Amino acid sequence: MDREAAGITLIALTLCTVSWFFERYVAAISFIVALAVLFGYRGLLLKPRDAKLTVARKLPHVGGGLIVSGLLLAGWRWLAIGLTSAATFGYLYLILNHSSNRGSGVLSNLALQFGLIMENGGKPVYLSSTFYAFSALALLLLLYYPKPAIGGILTLTVSDTVAAVVGLHGKVKIPRLGKTVEGSAAMFVSSALILMAIGVPFYIAGIVALCATIIEMLPLPVDDNFLIPLIVGILLEALII
User: Fold this and answer.
1) Transmembrane residues, as ranges (predicted)?
2) Predicted structure pTM score
């Protein structure tokens, strides 16, 4: 096992063990660390626009969302928090390792292939959207459980990915928004279906899916990777009695 893999494995095991006893504290610390990285590494963080990387960089999000949601459904909230926190600290570890010119391990190479780390003029740049997502998921796991958290996580990781993939092939552009009708429709339909699949009544699922679609569609000042899961979680908590 190379240095990077060993380091991140140790981080994951430590955080999962601590989460067994102090899950809320671990979630809170993960949220704070993600926000701190967003501010501390602002000069090195970006939101890539390269369409060729869209599918690749979304695949880890889908896999992570399904794993965390499955753990919540199984009642293993502590492990969901531990793995989410491990992903936050693990990505920070990759940033620090890569920035110090030691990023030649297996995980750094995978991150480069998936567009989670990119080179710009010989300098590494990283995804701000990744830490927005990590901070939102940590906050969701801290505040809501289980249906609002699961709904928020899956809407971000699965529905947003479906919208991005469909949108790449969309033909009908929405004026001034840079989105396609096909991508937004895919976001709405997939969100509604996912929410109904976890037991949300169809009319509530439709309302929440519409709100998530509008957030994804509009050029808001706050990253949609942060807003989508939180708004979905808040709406589900408020509407499901």
Assistant:
1) 5-22, 28-45, 66-94, 125-144, 150-168, 188-215
2) 0.87
